Amino acid sequence: LPEEVLIIILKFLPAQDLVNIRLVSTNLKHLVDESPTLWMTVSFPSIWPSQKNRAVLERAANVGNIEALIKLGLAHLYNEGSNNTNASENGRQAAELFCTAERMTCDPFTWFFIRPPWAPSGSCCKACVFKNMVEYCSNAEPCDSLNKSLLFCIGKILSLHEDEKRRSECIDWLQRASNLGSSHAAFEMWKMKSLEHALEPSAMLQSLRELRDIAMNGNAEAQYTLAMQYAAGNMGGASKDHAAEFLTQFLQKSKALNSHKLFGFQTELNNTMRYILVDWLVEVALMKDFSSQIVHIAVHCVDQYLMKRKVQRSELQLLGITCILIAARFQGKDIVTIREASWLTDDTYSYEEVVRMMGEVMSCLRGEVR
Q1: Residue 204, CA distances (Å) to 198, 200, 207, 216 in order
Q2: Whole-number Å distance between alpha carbons of 238 and 219
Q3: What is the pLDDT of residues 31-70, one digit of tens each?
Q4: Integer distance in angstroms from the first to the last C-alpha of the chain?
Q5: Is residue 238 domain-shared with residue 308, that is, in the same domain?
Q6: 247 and 332: one domain?
Q7: In what residue span(s) does the F-box domain sit (predicted)?
Q8: Is 277 in the same domain as 355?
Q9: pLDDT value for 153
Q10: 248 lies in which domain range?
């Protein structure tokens, strides 16, 4: 077969099979080694960084494989799968990997990994990662539009701090990101401003107009918020016909779960198991006083993962608690810690297993949670 055809076929293989293919012949070894596109798209299902496979993951990360970048970054962040216990060095390497991943995606997501609260000590090195990300952005070209996601991440992290000084710094970072075209930063600033002027009718009108502009730029959160405002009768100067058309288009974007396709792919799971899992996630959300939106995001993450990766029955609850952990960190002020997530499953799953499942989900979804 021509090399072009072989490369297309090899793109469907997971990483371990790709490594094994290299051993078949010299020609295949050369083809695999000299084809960056293979390593850029190869998947690493259920593979966590270790001394045995680190070289393969690093090869993929070096050519921009988002899954490898996320898993290696998390391995350094939580000191999982790395022999290096130096928080400063792990933080530097995690920041480098996260910065590379962030420049390759549309939706900023790495802030989720290192958002406060930060532990004052321990193997987790979020503060070191944040410091290195700030240095990276400070040394980058001010007009580099690829940095807008990183600038947003820094601003978002600062906004979540209890320290008033740090929170006040977030506006500068968000403004820089917004100036480079980040709709996420624009929406974050809109939320802050709308809280300040919540009781002023004139300010509310202008606020809704600004929200509409952000939503028109394709920001999903802004579109959801605008839809909720229209549904509540807050038009912000828009006509009823325009609002009705927007709501119709917004609802049409929501696709129903194709359970037949999902459970045709999953061999150990069925619809009843999914219902039981969702009921349990609702119980967890009620116990934590989470919003219904967090539950919806968590279930969405579960379904998206199940559509792409096979899951054993024994791992389904682990997937569920990890997805609600992810949803809460993205959407809520109060979060589920990794240790708490383990406890909520009656310690069925360990801290390390939750960390690794978080890496599996986030890398599989390529950081696109919502």
Answers
A1: 7, 6, 5, 18
A2: 19
A3: 888 888 888 988 888 888 888 888 889 999 999 999 999 9
A4: 41
A5: no
A6: no
A7: 1-42
A8: yes
A9: 93
A10: 198-253
